[in-house]
Every structure is written in structure tokens, then in C-alpha cells.
Amino acid sequence: MPEPQAASPRTPDATRRSERSRRAIYDAALALVTEVGYARTTVEGIASRAGVGKQTIYRWWPSKSAVLLDAYLDLAGQAAAEAQDGQDGAEAAGLPDTGDLAADLRAVLRATVDELNDPRFEAPTRALTAEGVVDGELGARFVERLLEPQLQLYVDRLTAAREAGQVRDGVDPRVAVELLVGPLTHRWLLRTRPLTHAYADELVEYALHGIAPRQAVEGA
């Protein structure tokens, strides 16, 4: 009888190994920028924390800012998936549309406040925002890959509201969006005052109704 042959060793799965390394690098980059700040975060430090060689990082990214951007986009994608869990396709595709524009905007801005105050997001968001000011290429990538898609969701919701008669004709949805997210970002970035749900609600009120005195109701 032929002797049983030894089982051949399993071929290592390079794809799975690469994904584990990539995940470890993402986690290391986000952890370091939170613990020691962007200036003291280095490619060497990320590699050491992730348990990979420095050349592994440089094979996939040209700089620490590129690593951090991809790590942040991955984190944002995970958070979006968690938020959409249990929602139907229409809700998951954009901002909520309950028919009550003010309530929908309050809900979204409150969620944004929570995210900006979340320690997982605060340090990397500040780092990318600041670095994007001096690094035009990084700033453009940050806008293109993260900020612009998020702003477009607002534009789409406000456009639908305008078509439904909830926003007056002639209003540019893109400018209207800036009335909502601009002040929120300013307060968060400069830490002028606490970022709260109450402040988010006020922004919606001011953006939808303005600050000029309202006309008296006819016949009152």
C-alpha cells in the first residue's frame, strides 16, 4: 500500500496578511495622534505601534498625513455604517427626510456635535484640518474624499425642501449649508465656547428664520 502523504502546508494568505497590517497601521495612526498630537506622530512611531516595518508604510503611503487621512476615512466609514444599521436604503442614502426640515436639520447637526466631541474623532479631525491649511494637496484630498460628499447630502436635502415649498425659490442650497456648518466648525475649531445640542438647534433656527425682526402677523 502506498504510504500516506503528508498534508501540504497551507499557503499564506497575502491578502489577509496585508489587510491585518493595514488595519493595525490605521489603529496606530489614530491612537498616536490622539495620545501625542500630530506634530509628534511619526511614520516610525506608527510602524512601531502597528508592529510593521517602516517600508511597509511607505509602500502604501507617501507620508504620515496620507496615512492619517486614510485612517480617518476608514473610521468615518465605520461610524456611518453603524449609524445606518437598521435604516432602510432611502434613509441610509442621505439626510433624514421626515417632511419637517427644521427637525431633520437639528437631528443631523446634533449628531455632528456628538461626533466632533467624540475623542475618537476630535484629534484626527483637528490634525487633518490644520495640516490641510498648509498642505494644499492634503487639504484638497480631505475636501474631495470626506467634506464634499457630506456637504452634498445637505445640498440634496435642502434642494428637496425647496422643491417642496419649505425653502423659498432662489435660495442657493450650497450657501444655505454654509450657514449651518460654518458656525459649527468655527466654534469647534477655535474652542470659543462649548459645542452643544442647544447651539446646534439655534443654528437651525437662525439659518431658517434669520435674525431680522419678524413681520407682525396680519390682523394681529
From TrEMBL:
InterPro entries: Homeodomain-like_sf, HTH-type_TetR-like_transc_reg, HTH_TetR, Tet_transcr_reg_TetR-rel_C_sf, TetR_C. One of its GO terms (molecular function) is transcription cis-regulatory region binding. SUPFAM superfamilies: Homeodomain-like, Tetracyclin repressor-like, C-terminal domain. Residues 1-20 are annotated as: Disordered. Residues 19-79 form the HTH tetR-type domain. Keywords: DNA-binding, Transcription, Transcription regulation. Residues 42-61 bind DNA. PANTHER family: HTH-TYPE TRANSCRIPTIONAL REGULATOR RUTR, TETR-FAMILY TRANSCRIPTIONAL REGULATOR. This is TetR family transcriptional regulator.
